[in-house]
Specification:
Blueprint: H1 3-71, H2 80-103, H3 108-133, H4 145-217, H5 223-283, H6 288-303, H7 309-330, H8 334-342, H9 349-381, H10 387-413
Helix pairs in contact: 1-2, 1-4, 1-5, 1-9, 1-10, 3-4, 4-5, 5-6, 5-9, 5-10, 7-8, 7-9
Length: about 425
C-alpha cells in the first residue's frame, strides 16, 4: 500500500473514530442529565417537601390541641368542632408524611424516633382531653390542672423531640436535594466541555484532511466531507449549549423556586407555632410572659418571609389581633379572648390567622409549581436527545465512507 492510500485510510479511520467518540459523549451526557434531573425532580424534591409538610403538620397539630383545651365544651364561646377537625387532619398529615419519608429512604432511626414520640404525644393529648371533658361547667379558658399538666408534657415532647426530629429529616432532605442538583450540574458542565473539545478536534481533523485532499486530488471542495464538517460543528455547538443550559435551568429551579418554597413552608410552621403561643398564653397564665415573648420572636421571623404585599397585609392583621387578644386577657375578658382565638369570624384573630396562612400557603404553592414547571421545561429541552444527534452522526459516517470510496477504488485498480 502506498503512502497516499495509507494516509487516506488513516484520515477516514480518524474521522470515524471521532464521530463515534462524539456520539458516545452525547449519549452519556444526555443520559446523565436526564437521570440526574429525574432524581432531583421526582425523588429528592418530593422528599424535601414531605419533610417540610411534616414539620408544619406537627407545629399546627399542637396549636389545634391548645385550641381544643382553650375552648372546652362551651360552643357559645369558641369553635371546638373546628379545632377538633383540624387537629385530626394534621394528625393524619403527620402519619402520611412520615410514611412518605420512610418510603423515600429517610433515616430509619429518626423515623422511628418520630413514631415512638408520636405514640407518647397522642397518649398525653388523649389524657389531657379526657381530664378536661370530665369537668362540668369549668371556668372559661381554664382547663383542670391535671389536663394542663398532660398538655404541657405533650407540647414539651413535641418541641424537645418531634420537631427536632422533623427538622433533621428536613435538613437531610434539603442537603440531598442540593447534592443531587449539584452533581447533575457538574455532569452537565463536564459533558459540555468534553463534547466541545471532541467536536472541535474532529472539525480540525476534517478541515486539515480536506485541505490535504484538495491538494492531492485537485478537488477544491468535497461535498460529502463539507457537509460532515458543518454537521459536526453544528452538533458540537448545539450539544455544548444544551448541556450548559441544562445546568443553568437546574440551578435556577433550585435557587429561584424550590429554596423559596422551603422558606415559605417553614414560615407556615413558624406561624402555626406563633398561633399556638397565643392559645398557650391564655390557658397557661403562669407561663404567659414566656409565650408572649415567644410570639414576638416568631413574628420577627415571619417579617423576614414576606413574598408579596398580600401576605404582608395579612401578617399585619394577625399581629394586630394578637394585641387585641392580650388586651382581652389583661382585662379579664377570657370569653372574648377565647372567641378571638377560635371563632373564624372576620376581624377575629382566628379568621385573620387563617387568612394569613392561606396567603402564605398559596405563595409557597406558587413557588413549588414554578419549580415543577422549570424541571418540566428542562426535561422537555432534552426531547429528541441523544437519538436525533446520533442519527445525524450516522449519516455523517455514510457520507465519509461515500466520499472516500471512489479514491480508494482508484488506488485499488493501480
Amino acid at each position: 500500500m502506498g503512502a497516499v492510500p495509507a494516509r487516506l485510510y488513516g484520515f477516514v479511520a480518524l474521522v470515524l473514530a471521532g464521530i463515534v467518540v462524539l456520539a458516545a459523549g452525547i449519549a452519556v451526557g444526555t443520559g446523565n442529565a436526564r437521570s440526574g434531573l429525574d432524581e432531583v425532580a421526582h425523588t429528592s424534591a418530593p422528599r424535601a417537601r414531605a419533610a417540610a409538610d411534616l414539620y408544619f403538620a406537627l407545629a399546627d397539630l399542637d396549636a389545634q390541641v391548645a385550641n381544643v383545651l382553650l375552648v372546652g365544651s362551651d360552643e357559645q364561646i369558641g369553635n371546638r368542632q373546628l379545632a377538633l377537625r383540624q387537629m385530626r387532619q394534621r394528625r393524619a398529615s403527620v402519619t402520611e408524611n412520615i410514611q412518605k419519608l420512610a418510603a423515600g429512604g429517610a433515616s430509619s432511626r429518626t423515623v422511628q424516633t418520630l413514631i415512638d414520640g408520636l405514640g407518647k404525644y397522642d397518649a398525653y393529648v388523649a389524657q389531657a382531653r379526657l381530664e378536661d371533658d370530665q369537668v362540668e361547667n369549668r371556668a372559661i379558658a381554664r382547663p383542670p390542672v391535671v389536663a394542663l399538666n398532660y398538655f404541657v408534657n405533650a407540647t414539651s415532647l413535641l418541641h424537645d423531640e418531634l420537631l427536632p426530629a422533623a427538622d433533621a429529616l428536613g435538613r437531610g432532605a434539603g442537603e440531598k436535594l442540593a447534592a443531587d442538583a449539584d452533581a447533575d450540574r457538574t455532569h452537565a458542565r463536564w459533558a459540555a466541555l468534553a463534547i466541545g473539545l471532541a467536536g472541535l478536534l474532529l472539525v480540525v481533523v476534517l478541515i486539515v484532511g480536506q485541505v490535504w485532499w484538495a491538494r492531492r486530488f485537485r478537488r477544491v471542495v468535497v461535498p460529502g466531507l463539507a457537509a460532515v464538517t458543518i454537521a459536526v460543528a453544528a452538533l458540537t455547538g448545539t450539544a455544548a449549549v444544551l448541556f450548559t443550559d441544562h445546568a443553568s435551568r437546574l440551578r435556577d429551579a433550585e435557587t429561584q423556586a424550590f429554596d423559596p418554597f422551603l422558606t415559605l413552608a417553614r414560615a407556615r410552621a413558624t406561624a402555626s407555632e406563633a398561633n399556638a403561643d397565643e392559645s398557650r398564653f391564655v390557658i397557661l397564665p403562669e407561663r404567659a410572659r414566656a409565650y408572649g415573648q415567644g410570639f414576638k420572636d416568631k413574628a420577627i421571623q415571619l417579617d423576614k418571609a414576606v413574598p408579596n404585599r398580600q401576605v404582608a397585609t395579612r401578617l399585619e392583621a394577625f399581629r394586630r389581633d394578637d394585641q387585641a387578644l392580650r388586651a382581652a386577657v389583661a382585662g379579664g375578658r377570657l370569653d372574648v379572648a377565647v372567641g378571638l382565638a377560635t371563632n373564624v369570624g372576620r376581624g377575629n384573630l382566628a379568621f385573620d390567622f387563617y387568612d394569613y396562612q392561606t396567603a402564605l400557603a398559596a405563595a409557597a404553592e406558587a413557588e413549588h409549581t414554578d419549580f415543577e414547571n422549570r424541571t418540566d421545561d428542562a426535561a422537555d429541552a432534552l426531547t429528541g436527545w441523544p437519538w436525533a444527534p446520533i442519527g445525524v452522526l450516522g449519516v455523517c459516517v455514510v457520507l465519509v465512507l461515500a466520499s472516500a470510496r471512489p479514491r480508494l477504488r482508484e488506488y485499488a485498480k493501480r
